[in-house]
Design goal:
Strand content: 15-25%
Radius of gyration: 23 Å
Structural class: alpha+beta
Number of helices: 15
Strand order of the largest sheet: 1-2-6-3-5-4
Distance between the termini: 54 Å
Order of helices and strands: EEEHHEEHHHHHEHEEHHEEHHHHHE
Largest sheet: 6 strands, mixed
Shape: globular
Number of strands: 11
Oligomer: single chain
Helix content: 40-55%
């Protein structure tokens, strides 16, 4: 990683076998940074940057990127936002100019703002029309009260209606600053190649290099997450099958060892037909159509989310069997074969994510943006530090049923 003169960070990784270059711009500007009254602003601004910039007309960015043979995308999360561009090497220099101009100098035209707000509101309406999404949001709201992780990233309708281009420009100035931004370059970046040398030269004179640092030297710290245990029930029209949802607080992203333990335990319990919960509840007892336990790694505190789909009358039995499976795991030794299977699943899942330039950029972006800065191979090395006994002692208690926020969602 290197820093430009203004403090903006740039990470470059050469992948000799990659046929393209990935430009991935990251910013600490997710929904967790929204101030009161700004609900949905982080996601809304992601939409608006594509509506024109200081030097680009609406639609011009997409036309020019596609003419270069590239593709682009963007995503807003709780913690951050990133803008992702894949491009052939000979178009990388022009693509860099286009991407930085688009993201760092958005026009925020009043008419485009009004039109795009309707797009965002329609996206919110579609989410609210999906009973599964409604159930998930209700669970997050109940388990993460008074925290951004319990709020919809798409925002609240009343606050979206009240937002203005001026307020969005203020949000952009506060968060899209040199010290809060990171650019990842990955792919075909041979140090001796002409396009690589030109990219490095262009960066020093780019809009990223001209970006001002934050006006406030010490921004407010991220609010720590505490999942509130409890039991909730929700009847939903058009919900096809009953769902048991359980939410746990797990180690935050900065705790690599804790995160790898959480990845191991969720894989052991619910990844694949041979995992404990899938084998027990679906294959043998046939109580569920499906059961998943996912790990969502986040900066304030990660989330473990279990979803079991079955019949309403079977929900009490499903909960009992989940509790019994966790109790059995705590009381007995994990067989060597089962332990090796879990380790392989986690390790291979991580390796597969690094098979493309985009995957490498994503892994580096989330690490370096937040100052974790561990090498790409660090998660694999940390896996070797775990053994089955330590996992049961240290990580399994985090998934105790009494620590979970539970929601039973049933058809109305």
């Amino acid at each position: 990683m290197r820093r430009l003169a203004n403090g903006a960070r740039v990470v470059s990784v050469n992948l000799p076998d990659a046929p393209l270059v990935c430009l991935d711009f990251w910013c600490k500007a997710g929904s967790v940074f929204e101030a009161p009254g700004e609900s949905g602003m982080a996601h809304f601004i992601e939409h608006m940057v594509f509506k024109g910039s200081a030097h680009l007309e609406p639609g011009e960015f997409d036309r020019r990127v596609e003419a270069l043979g590239g593709s682009s995308n963007a995503a807003t999360g709780f913690d951050d936002v990133h803008y992702h561009l894949l491009i052939p090497p000979d178009g990388a220099i022009e693509a860099l100019d286009l991407l930085l101009d688009l993201v760092l100098e958005p026009r925020l035209d009043h008419q485009a703002f009004q039109l795009e707000r309707q797009v965002v509101l329609e996206e919110l309406a579609q989410s609210e029309d999906q009973p599964e999404e409604v159930a998930l949001q209700r669970l997050l709201g109940a388990g993460c009260p008074n925290h951004a992780y319990g709020e919809p990233i798409l925002g609240r309708r009343d606050q979206l209606l009240a937002q203005t281009p001026e307020a969005m420009a203020s949000f952009h100035r506060r968060h899209y600053t040199a010290d809060r931004c990171l650019l990842i370059l990955s792919g075909c970046l041979d140090p001796g190649a002409a396009h690589t040398v030109a990219l490095e030269e262009r960066l020093s004179a780019s809009s990223l290099a001209r970006l001002e640092p934050a006006a406030v030297a010490a921004p407010r710290p991220l609010p720590p997450l505490t999942v509130r245990p409890g039991e909730h029930r929700l009847r939903l029209p058009r919900l096809e099958s009953a769902r048991l949802l359980m939410l746990w607080e797990l180690p935050a992203a900065a705790d690599l060892h804790g995160v790898m333990g959480a990845d191991l335990i969720t894989s052991l319990l619910a990844e694949g037909r041979r995992s404990r919960l899938v084998d027990r509840l679906r294959e043998r007892l046939r109580l569920v159509e499906s059961i998943d336990l996912d790990l969502h790694v986040l900066e304030c505190g990660s989330l473990g989310l279990l979803e079991a789909i079955g019949e309403e009358e079977d929900l009490p039995a499903i909960r009992r069997e989940i509790g019994a499976a966790l109790k059995e795991l705590a009381a007995e030794e994990i067989a060597p074969e089962e332990w090796r299977r879990s380790q392989r699943l986690v390790a291979n899942g991580y390796r597969f994510g690094l098979e493309s330039a985009g995957g490498v950029a994503s892994a580096l972006g989330s690490q370096h943006l937040w100052g974790h800065g561990v090498p790409l191979e660090a998660p694999l090395r940390d896996l070797e530090r775990w053994d089955a006994g330590a996992l049961v002692r240290e990580t399994l208690p985090l998934l105790a049923p009494g620590r979970a926020c539970v929601l039973e969602a049933v058809p109305a």
